[in-house]
Write a structure and sequence with these properties.
With 215 residues, the chain is of the alpha+beta class. The protein has eight helices and six strands; from the N terminus they run αααβαβββββαααα. The chain has two domains: 56 residues, no CATH class; 136 residues, no CATH class. The model has no long low-confidence stretch (mean pLDDT 86).
Length: 215
Protein backbone atom coordinates (compact mmCIF):
# COMPACT_ATOMS: atom_id res chain seq x y z
CA UNK A 1 0.00 0.00 0.00
CA UNK A 2 1.46 3.38 -1.03
CA UNK A 3 1.65 6.40 1.28
CA UNK A 4 -1.52 8.02 -0.09
CA UNK A 5 -3.57 4.83 0.26
CA UNK A 6 -2.20 4.30 3.75
CA UNK A 7 -3.16 7.84 4.75
CA UNK A 8 -6.66 7.42 3.33
CA UNK A 9 -7.04 4.05 5.05
CA UNK A 10 -6.11 5.58 8.41
CA UNK A 11 -8.61 8.43 7.93
CA UNK A 12 -11.35 5.97 6.97
CA UNK A 13 -10.55 3.87 10.03
CA UNK A 14 -10.85 6.93 12.25
CA UNK A 15 -14.22 7.77 10.72
CA UNK A 16 -15.47 4.19 11.21
CA UNK A 17 -14.46 4.22 14.87
CA UNK A 18 -16.47 7.36 15.59
CA UNK A 19 -19.32 7.20 13.06
CA UNK A 20 -21.93 6.39 15.73
CA UNK A 21 -21.45 9.89 17.19
CA UNK A 22 -22.78 11.52 14.02
CA UNK A 23 -26.40 12.43 13.36
CA UNK A 24 -28.42 10.18 11.04
CA UNK A 25 -27.82 12.24 7.88
CA UNK A 26 -24.07 12.55 8.43
CA UNK A 27 -23.85 8.88 9.43
CA UNK A 28 -25.44 7.80 6.15
CA UNK A 29 -23.05 9.96 4.13
CA UNK A 30 -20.07 8.76 6.16
CA UNK A 31 -21.02 5.12 5.60
CA UNK A 32 -21.28 5.70 1.84
CA UNK A 33 -17.72 7.07 1.84
CA UNK A 34 -16.49 4.09 3.84
CA UNK A 35 -18.22 1.68 1.45
CA UNK A 36 -16.72 3.40 -1.59
CA UNK A 37 -13.25 3.22 -0.10
CA UNK A 38 -13.62 -0.47 0.74
CA UNK A 39 -14.74 -1.13 -2.84
CA UNK A 40 -12.14 0.99 -4.69
CA UNK A 41 -9.37 1.29 -2.07
CA UNK A 42 -9.12 4.95 -2.99
CA UNK A 43 -11.14 8.20 -2.80
CA UNK A 44 -10.91 11.56 -4.56
CA UNK A 45 -9.50 14.63 -2.80
CA UNK A 46 -13.01 16.03 -2.38
CA UNK A 47 -14.25 12.76 -0.86
CA UNK A 48 -11.28 12.68 1.51
CA UNK A 49 -12.07 16.25 2.55
CA UNK A 50 -15.46 14.98 3.74
CA UNK A 51 -13.96 11.90 5.39
CA UNK A 52 -11.69 14.13 7.48
CA UNK A 53 -14.42 16.69 8.12
CA UNK A 54 -16.92 14.08 9.29
CA UNK A 55 -14.31 12.31 11.42
CA UNK A 56 -13.49 15.61 13.14
CA UNK A 57 -17.20 16.32 13.60
CA UNK A 58 -17.76 12.90 15.13
CA UNK A 59 -14.90 13.42 17.57
CA UNK A 60 -16.18 16.85 18.57
CA UNK A 61 -13.27 18.76 17.04
CA UNK A 62 -14.38 22.33 16.16
CA UNK A 63 -14.63 23.08 12.43
CA UNK A 64 -12.31 25.98 11.77
CA UNK A 65 -12.45 25.70 7.97
CA UNK A 66 -15.75 27.58 7.72
CA UNK A 67 -14.67 30.73 9.54
CA UNK A 68 -15.68 33.39 7.02
CA UNK A 69 -13.51 36.13 5.55
CA UNK A 70 -15.09 39.40 4.39
CA UNK A 71 -13.89 40.09 0.82
CA UNK A 72 -16.43 42.84 0.07
CA UNK A 73 -19.89 42.77 -1.50
CA UNK A 74 -20.09 40.13 -4.23
CA UNK A 75 -23.34 41.36 -5.78
CA UNK A 76 -21.48 42.68 -8.84
CA UNK A 77 -19.92 39.29 -9.48
CA UNK A 78 -23.27 37.55 -9.09
CA UNK A 79 -24.93 40.08 -11.40
CA UNK A 80 -22.29 39.27 -14.01
CA UNK A 81 -23.08 35.57 -13.66
CA UNK A 82 -26.82 36.22 -13.91
CA UNK A 83 -26.33 38.02 -17.23
CA UNK A 84 -24.32 35.12 -18.59
CA UNK A 85 -26.82 32.56 -17.30
CA UNK A 86 -29.33 33.84 -19.85
CA UNK A 87 -26.99 32.56 -22.60
CA UNK A 88 -24.89 29.84 -20.98
CA UNK A 89 -25.80 26.72 -19.02
CA UNK A 90 -22.65 26.69 -16.88
CA UNK A 91 -20.98 30.13 -16.91
CA UNK A 92 -17.59 30.33 -15.21
CA UNK A 93 -14.85 32.86 -14.56
CA UNK A 94 -11.27 31.60 -14.85
CA UNK A 95 -8.37 33.36 -13.12
CA UNK A 96 -5.02 32.50 -11.58
CA UNK A 97 -3.07 33.42 -8.47
CA UNK A 98 0.44 34.93 -8.54
CA UNK A 99 1.84 31.47 -7.83
CA UNK A 100 0.17 30.10 -10.95
CA UNK A 101 -2.68 28.16 -9.31
CA UNK A 102 -5.79 28.23 -11.48
CA UNK A 103 -9.02 29.44 -9.87
CA UNK A 104 -12.47 28.91 -11.36
CA UNK A 105 -15.63 30.59 -10.06
CA UNK A 106 -19.15 29.33 -10.70
CA UNK A 107 -22.57 30.45 -9.49
CA UNK A 108 -24.29 27.77 -7.38
CA UNK A 109 -27.70 26.82 -8.77
CA UNK A 110 -31.09 26.30 -7.17
CA UNK A 111 -30.37 22.67 -6.24
CA UNK A 112 -27.41 23.70 -4.08
CA UNK A 113 -27.73 24.20 -0.34
CA UNK A 114 -26.04 27.56 -0.88
CA UNK A 115 -27.86 28.65 -4.05
CA UNK A 116 -26.87 32.13 -5.16
CA UNK A 117 -23.38 31.91 -3.70
CA UNK A 118 -20.26 31.56 -5.85
CA UNK A 119 -18.13 28.42 -5.58
CA UNK A 120 -14.35 28.71 -5.83
CA UNK A 121 -12.34 25.73 -7.15
CA UNK A 122 -9.24 24.96 -9.18
CA UNK A 123 -9.26 23.98 -12.86
CA UNK A 124 -9.57 20.25 -12.15
CA UNK A 125 -12.50 18.19 -13.51
CA UNK A 126 -15.64 17.90 -11.38
CA UNK A 127 -15.19 15.32 -8.63
CA UNK A 128 -11.40 15.52 -8.77
CA UNK A 129 -10.95 19.26 -8.36
CA UNK A 130 -9.81 21.21 -5.32
CA UNK A 131 -12.61 23.08 -3.59
CA UNK A 132 -11.55 26.42 -2.10
CA UNK A 133 -14.91 27.34 -0.60
CA UNK A 134 -17.78 29.65 -1.50
CA UNK A 135 -18.54 33.37 -1.42
CA UNK A 136 -21.98 34.69 -0.43
CA UNK A 137 -23.66 37.66 -2.09
CA UNK A 138 -22.68 39.91 0.79
CA UNK A 139 -19.02 39.00 0.27
CA UNK A 140 -18.44 36.44 3.02
CA UNK A 141 -15.92 33.87 1.83
CA UNK A 142 -16.09 30.51 3.62
CA UNK A 143 -12.70 28.87 2.94
CA UNK A 144 -12.47 25.08 2.64
CA UNK A 145 -9.49 23.04 3.78
CA UNK A 146 -7.98 22.99 0.27
CA UNK A 147 -7.52 26.76 0.54
CA UNK A 148 -5.34 26.62 3.65
CA UNK A 149 -1.99 27.10 1.90
CA UNK A 150 -3.17 29.86 -0.45
CA UNK A 151 -5.69 31.62 1.77
CA UNK A 152 -3.98 35.04 1.68
CA UNK A 153 -3.60 34.99 -2.12
CA UNK A 154 -7.23 33.95 -2.58
CA UNK A 155 -8.44 36.61 -0.17
CA UNK A 156 -6.60 39.29 -2.14
CA UNK A 157 -7.92 38.01 -5.47
CA UNK A 158 -11.54 37.76 -4.31
CA UNK A 159 -11.36 41.22 -2.73
CA UNK A 160 -10.15 42.74 -6.01
CA UNK A 161 -12.80 40.83 -7.95
CA UNK A 162 -15.57 42.14 -5.68
CA UNK A 163 -14.58 45.75 -6.44
CA UNK A 164 -14.55 45.46 -10.24
CA UNK A 165 -15.58 41.98 -11.47
CA UNK A 166 -15.24 42.20 -15.24
CA UNK A 167 -12.07 44.27 -15.22
CA UNK A 168 -10.24 42.09 -12.71
CA UNK A 169 -11.32 38.89 -14.46
CA UNK A 170 -10.17 40.34 -17.78
CA UNK A 171 -6.71 41.00 -16.32
CA UNK A 172 -6.20 37.25 -16.19
CA UNK A 173 -7.11 36.95 -19.86
CA UNK A 174 -4.66 39.68 -20.81
CA UNK A 175 -1.82 38.11 -18.85
CA UNK A 176 -2.46 34.50 -19.83
CA UNK A 177 -3.57 34.96 -23.43
CA UNK A 178 -6.66 32.86 -22.68
CA UNK A 179 -10.26 34.03 -22.36
CA UNK A 180 -11.16 34.64 -18.70
CA UNK A 181 -14.56 33.00 -19.30
CA UNK A 182 -14.17 30.01 -21.65
CA UNK A 183 -10.36 29.63 -21.28
CA UNK A 184 -9.87 29.41 -25.06
CA UNK A 185 -6.70 30.97 -26.52
CA UNK A 186 -7.14 34.61 -27.56
CA UNK A 187 -6.13 34.79 -31.21
CA UNK A 188 -6.82 38.39 -32.28
CA UNK A 189 -5.64 41.79 -31.09
CA UNK A 190 -9.00 43.07 -29.84
CA UNK A 191 -9.65 39.98 -27.72
CA UNK A 192 -6.14 40.11 -26.27
CA UNK A 193 -6.62 43.78 -25.37
CA UNK A 194 -9.74 43.12 -23.29
CA UNK A 195 -8.99 39.61 -21.99
CA UNK A 196 -11.93 37.76 -23.56
CA UNK A 197 -13.31 36.94 -27.00
CA UNK A 198 -16.11 38.52 -29.00
CA UNK A 199 -18.56 35.65 -28.43
CA UNK A 200 -17.98 35.63 -24.66
CA UNK A 201 -18.36 39.41 -24.58
CA UNK A 202 -21.85 39.05 -26.05
CA UNK A 203 -22.78 36.17 -23.75
CA UNK A 204 -21.64 38.06 -20.64
CA UNK A 205 -23.07 41.43 -21.71
CA UNK A 206 -19.70 43.18 -21.92
CA UNK A 207 -18.03 45.64 -24.29
CA UNK A 208 -15.52 44.21 -26.74
CA UNK A 209 -12.75 45.87 -28.68
CA UNK A 210 -11.95 48.51 -26.05
CA UNK A 211 -10.50 48.10 -22.58
CA UNK A 212 -13.08 47.49 -19.86
CA UNK A 213 -13.33 50.63 -17.72
CA UNK A 214 -15.79 49.46 -15.07
CA UNK A 215 -18.29 46.74 -14.25
Amino acid sequence: MDAISQSQSEAIGLLQQNVSALNVKDRTFAQSLVDQFQKKQSLSDKQMFWVEKLASRAMGIPDFTMASVDVGGFSGVIELFNKAAANLKYPAIAMSLPGGQGVKLKLLGTLSKHAGSVSVCDFGPFGANKYYGRVSKDGQWFPASDAALIKDELTAMLTKLAKCPARVAAEYGKMSGHCCFCMSPLTDKKSTEVGYGKICAKQWGLAWGTEVKAA
